[in-house]
């Protein structure tokens, strides 16, 4: 494999950002002088032919709130720096080295030794669509264990792909037991079971131990959404027998949305290699594995990946690997335990009754009867510059969704947030 050159060489000297700037100034000057001499070409493309005039796009200033919703989360400092780096061609050694770093980091955060680990260009939904479309063929059955909005998304995506869907439900403020799922796996013999590990619409965390084994016993693959749980809550892909898993960078990863980590087990790999259906081209992991060099130095172009997104993901992984997963899990658990204690001191109640079902990245909080949820979140944003979100799906009008995750998983943030929430309640609900 010959190595290509990332930094351009112009006339034997190396090229830098200052050159780009002065080159741009010259281009602008040339354009204006050409227009001024009114050559016929410009007369032909006169302003009269433009049906849409140029809008005035001015900079907008805004004050960024502390992000304590169910996502997105604030960035790691290294991510801010990574996003401001200059662009390079995604077809050179430097770029492919970044892909290698990312794959190694993702194997660590998913805790898998699988080679088929990469990131999809797109938000968490891209991960969801790729895991489902690569592992379940049209006409096959996907069993969906539903307790929030993300399982509904999985159902919509699967249906559009021509997959038969079956849904089994549990009360929205609880999680599934193996005993609940086994009869359904037995009865339906699905190609796969879809389940959400951490659910940000209900604030629950699903226990995963034994689930992989149970699925495999009944001939099903296990597909898991870890968008809002990975990094914040223990997740052990190989140990738990998970076959297809996806996440997103905008939650506990503390990066920007736009690049979705995915991983496939060897069982999943076998299915992908023997499949007879074609998943959507953009989500085809068989092709993407060749771009990501999952099985050696293949470097096959599939689509132009976004270098800033990859640098951002690499910076997230660097920060997470430096901290290590056990420390990150403990930090999330400690800051959320502190937050919950402070909420109870202020007489807030939890939407999820069983403490062991509560997700440590997103807490669903009940407000006293009569308190308007949007008024509450509006006041918190206006007066305290903190963003939390109202309920979604099963929690609409029932609970707020409050996130303490990623870089914000600290007891200092928990204190600021709990105090601001207490102040907000006093202000808009004076009787309390
Ligand atoms: C936020 C979220 C998603 C969606 O992720 P996007 O990056 O917005 O596509 C999916 N699943 C869960 C559990 C989430 O919390």
TrEMBL record:
Pfam family, one: Aminotran_5
Enzyme category, top tier: transferase
Keyword presence, Heme: no
EC number(s) per entry: 2.6.1.44
GO CC, one annotated term: peroxisome
Cofactor(s) demanded: pyridoxal 5'-phosphate
GO biological process: glycine biosynthetic process, by transamination of glyoxylate
Domain named Aminotransferase class V: residues: 94-393
Transferase in keyword set: yes
MF (Gene Ontology): alanine-glyoxylate transaminase activity; L-serine-pyruvate transaminase activity
Modified residues (N6-(pyridoxal phosphate)lysine): 251
InterPro entries linked: Aminotrans_V_dom, PyrdxlP-dep_Trfase, PyrdxlP-dep_Trfase_major, PyrdxlP-dep_Trfase_small, SP_NH2Trfase/AEP_transaminase
Binding site for substrate: 401
Keywords: Aminotransferase, Pyridoxal phosphate, Transferase
Catalytic activity field: glyoxylate + L-alanine = glycine + pyruvate
Record PANTHER family: ALANINE--GLYOXYLATE AMINOTRANSFERASE, AMINOTRANSFERASE CLASS V
Family label: Belongs to the class-V pyridoxal-phosphate-dependent aminotransferase family.
The protein's name: Alanine--glyoxylate aminotransferase
Organism: Mythimna separata
Phylogenetic lineage: Eukaryota, Metazoa, Ecdysozoa, Arthropoda, Hexapoda
């Amino acid at each position: 494999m010959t190595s290509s050159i990332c930094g351009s060489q112009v006339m034997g000297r190396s090229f830098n950002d200052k050159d780009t700037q002065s080159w741009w100034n010259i281009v602008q000057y040339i354009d204006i002088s050409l227009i001024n001499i009114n050559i016929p070409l410009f007369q032909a493309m006169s302003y009269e032919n433009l049906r849409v005039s140029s809008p005035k796009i001015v900079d907008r200033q805004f004050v960024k709130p502390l992000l304590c919703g169910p996502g997105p989360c604030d960035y790691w400092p290294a991510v801010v720096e990574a996003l401001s780096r200059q662009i390079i061609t995604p077809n050179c050694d430097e770029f492919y080295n970044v892909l290698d770093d990312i794959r190694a980091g993702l194997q660590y955060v998913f805790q898998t030794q699988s080679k088929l680990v990469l990131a999809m260009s797109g938000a968490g939904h891209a991960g969801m669509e790729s895991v489902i479309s690569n592992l379940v063929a049209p006409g096959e059955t996907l069993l969906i264990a539903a307790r929030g909005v993300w399982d509904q998304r999985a159902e919509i995506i699967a249906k559009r792909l021509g997959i038969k869907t079956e849904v089994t439900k549990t009360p929205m403020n609880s999680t599934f037991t193996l005993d609940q799922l086994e009869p359904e796996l037995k009865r339906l013999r699905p190609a796969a079971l879809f389940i959400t590990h951490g659910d940000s619409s209900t604030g629950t965390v699903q226990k995963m131990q034994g689930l992989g084994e149970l699925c495999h016993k009944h001939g099903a693959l296990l597909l898991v959404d870890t968008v809002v749980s990975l990094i914040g809550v223990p997740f052990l892909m190989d140990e738990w027998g998970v076959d297809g898993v996806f996440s997103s960078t905008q939650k506990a990863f503390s990066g920007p949305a736009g690049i979705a980590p995915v991983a496939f087990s060897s069982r999943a790999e076998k299915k992908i290699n023997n499949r007879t259906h074609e998943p959507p081209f953009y989500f085809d992991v068989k092709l993407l594995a060749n771009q990501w060099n999952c099985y050696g130095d293949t470097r096959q172009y599939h689509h132009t990946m976004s270098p800033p997104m990859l640098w951002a993901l690499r910076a997230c992984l660097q920060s997470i690997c430096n901290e290590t997963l056990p420390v990150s899990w403990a930090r999330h658990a400690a800051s959320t335990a502190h937050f919950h204690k402070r909420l109870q001191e202020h007489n807030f109640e939890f939407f999820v009754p069983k403490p062991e079902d509560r997700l440590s990245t997103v807490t669903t909080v009940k407000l006293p009867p009569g308190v308007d949820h949007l008024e509450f979140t509006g006041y918190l944003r206006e007066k305290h510059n903190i963003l939390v979100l109202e309920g979604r799906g099963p929690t609409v009008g029932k609970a707020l969704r409050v996130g303490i995750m990623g870089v914000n998983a600290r007891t200092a943030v928990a204190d600021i947030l709990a105090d601001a929430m207490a102040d907000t309640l006093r202000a808009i609900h004076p009787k309390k």
